[in-house]
Structures are given as C-alpha cells and as structure tokens.
Design brief:
There is one protein chain. Helices cover 25% and strands 25% of the residues. With 389 residues, it is an alpha+beta fold. The chain has an eight-stranded antiparallel sheet with strand order 17-16-15-14-13-12-11-18, with no helix packed on it.
Length: 389
C-alpha cells in the first residue's frame, strides 16, 4: 500500500462488477495518475492484491483460487471455506448481505464477480475463521505441520509502514494508541499495553473484523451480514477486553452509538448545506443534445452520455450497474442517479467548456460524503472521444 496510488485508486475497474478480467485490470493500472511518490505514503489499495494474485498464478502455474485452496485452506482445515466471490450467498447455510438503502435496512444483491478474488474472494464462517486464528497465534503450526515459520510470523506482524496514531474520539479514549502502522496484510498498534494485530474486510452487505493479541494468545473474528462498522468494532473490543481481564467492562456499545449519532447529524448537515448553496435558478450553458456523446478516461475506458427523452442518461460501458439518469444540479453540473439504488453512490458530473462552447472535459465526484471510497469517481478525467480522433 505504498505504490504511490491514492486510496482505493482503480477500484472502478472491478467495482461494481465490470467486464474487465484480471489481466486487463492489471494492464490499466499504468494509466492511473499517482497521488504520491513511490513508497512515500500509505494508501490502501485493492487492485494491487489483484496484481499479487496474478504473480502467484504465473509462478505457481495454477489460478490463484486453486493455489490458495491447496496451500492454505486445506492445510488449515478450512473445509467450509472457498476462494470464489461467485460462490458467496449461494448455499442454504450462507448469510445474505444487508445494507441501509435510502433509510431502510434491506437485502442487497451479493457481489459475485471473480475478477478480483485476490482482494476479497475468501468466504469463511465462524469455525473456519477460528481455525485460521489458531494457526496465526501458533506461529504457523497446523495439525499436519507448518504453514509458515515462526520467523515468517514475526515478519508478517512487523510494521512496514508507520502510520500516525492520531487521537480517537473522546468516547473511544481506551483505544488511544502510542504506535500504529501497517505490516504485511495486518494493521499493528498497541491496545491496553498489548500489541494488537487487526484488519477489516468488506464487500457490499458484509463487513468483518479480525483482531489478535499474540501475548495473550487470544483472537476474535466478527463476521456480519450488514454494514455497520460500529457493530463489529463494539463486539470485537468488548470480547478482547473480557479476555484481557479489563474491569469494569467498558461500554463500547454506547460509545459507538454516540459517535454514530454525531456522524449522522454531521452528514445530514453537510447534505443540507450543499443543497442550500445550490443555485436552483441556474441553467445549463448548452442545449442538452450538446452534452451527449462518448467520453473516455485513460484508465477506466468509455462513458456514454445520451439524450433520453427530455433528459440525459449516463452509462459506464464496462460496468453494467453504473447506468442511470443525469439530473441538472446547477450551471454545468449534473447528478448521476444510478438506477440500482443499492449502490448508494450518486455522483456529480461537471462539464468544462472550451472558448467555442464545445465540451473540453468532464470530471466527477461523489455526491455525498458517505459514498464508499471504492467509487473513485474523482480520479476520472473524461474527454470527448471525437476530440481525439
């Protein structure tokens, strides 16, 4: 996560599900502008796990899924797990994803694209996650031998990239850290005087956290079929506190409820302020027909804006779910309202004009502050295809 790419850069190449395969996703990374210089800053990035998966497949001579199954899941005894997103929520004993959509918690479609399984394609339940935690806490030992050495465990758990610890909200005072960083696939920090190893996981409708305190040989995995970081965090820290002997028990549930209420209030205020500052009397500079056309971004590809009755539609050509209408917001800015409301990712679409009134370029940005960072609309720079040909 020190490549120089920004947070979540390139996620639109795989999320929502696209027609690009892993090889094409990897090839297109070269066109994404860097946010920082190489290895100078930490920024979590999903698509580079796809690259790692491609390296494994090339070296091992078999798909990433087969390699992970043979070399990790089977030795650990994770017989109920698999490494394919396409098998998510597919069986009678599988959880189904839920999320809050326009104010109501409801089921949403599961993410079943295999084009980036290396970034989040492992499906596992409580028993198998417990088996994985035991192997981790026992420095790689399994019933049949070693998955990795004790030396490898120390390397996996050692900080590679220091990250400022910062100050937590006052309600989370017990979570204040003296050190913080990222190791090899795990976050590392101190918690109540102990080294804590942790990481989250997330796909639409599913969020999870794994946390381990090696000095106490205790680990916890919290798996949810909803989208509430407050829920899995409150559970994880309460369980760790119990095994660490913290008395009296800290009320994590109330703490996270208070923070959630404050965040919800701030989000409502921000959305309301943006709406109040909008110039509703403004009109587009051009007739709607003049905005229609094919636009191209160097790393994503083509986006088509078309006249649709008395309005405009927008379609991301390689992302079937990113299809919707353009509603005028103000001046030459519109809002893309996606037909699939479970995406929760409406976006501003702003046209910039040349002196002669033709369209020079189009930029996008999330419509609300709570749009997931994987919708990296802000990294797109769309230009009319006709201007290049």
């Amino acid at each position: 996560h020190r490549s120089g790419l920004g947070l979540g850069a390139g996620d639109l190449l795989w999320w929502p599900p696209t027609t690009y395969d892993r090889r094409e996703i990897t090839r297109r990374l070269r066109f994404i502008p860097l946010a920082t210089s190489f290895r100078s800053a930490y920024a979590y990035d999903n698509v580079l796990y796809n690259v790692a998966g491609e390296v494994i497949a090339a070296v091992a001579g078999e798909p990433w899924e087969a390699f992970i199954t043979r070399r990790i899941l089977e030795p650990v005894g994770m017989r109920g797990s698999n490494a394919w997103n396409s098998r998510s929520a597919a069986g009678p004993n599988d959880a189904w994803p839920h999320a809050r959509v326009e104010g109501t918690v409801r089921t949403i479609p599961p993410f079943r694209s295999d084009n980036v399984n290396p970034a989040g394609g492992i499906n596992a339940g409580a028993e198998d996650m417990a088996r994985w935690l035991i192997v981790q806490l026992d420095s790689g030992r399994t019933a049949s031998g070693r998955l990795f050495s004790a030396g490898s465990a120390r390397e996996l758990w050692g900080i590679v990239t220091p990250i400022p610890a910062g100050e937590p909200p006052r309600e989370l005072a017990p979570f204040r850290a003296e050190f913080n960083g990222y190791a090899l696939g795990l976050g590392v920090r101190d918690y109540r005087g102990n080294k804590l190893l942790t990481h989250t996981g997330g796909l639409p409708g599913f969020l999870s956290r794994v946390a381990m305190v090696p000095s106490h040989r205790v680990g916890v995995a919290v798996l949810t079929n909803a989208e509430s970081g407050a829920a899995f965090n409150a559970i994880a820290w309460w369980v760790l506190d119990y095994y660490l002997g913290v008395r009296p028990a800290y009320d994590w549930l109330t703490a996270y409820r208070t923070i959630q209420a404050r965040d919800d209030s701030a989000l409502t205020a921000a959305v309301s302020q943006a709406a109040s500052e909008r110039d509703r009397a403004s009109r587009p500079s051009l007739p709607l027909d003049r905005y229609a056309g094919t636009y191209r971004d160097a790393w994503y590809g083509d986006v088509v804006i078309a006249r649709n009755g008395d309005g405009l539609s927008i379609t991301f050509c390689c992302s079937p779910d990113l299809t919707g209408t353009l509603e005028h917001w103000q001046y030459d800015t519109f809002v893309a309202r996606w037909r699939d409301r479970s995406l929760r990712a409406d976006a501003f679409v702003t046209f910039a004009l040349n002196p002669d009134g033709s369209i020079d370029q189009v930029k996008m940005a999330p419509f609300r502050p709570d749009v997931d960072f994987s919708f990296d609309f802000q990294d797109l720079l769309l230009t009319p295809v006709r201007a290049r040909e």
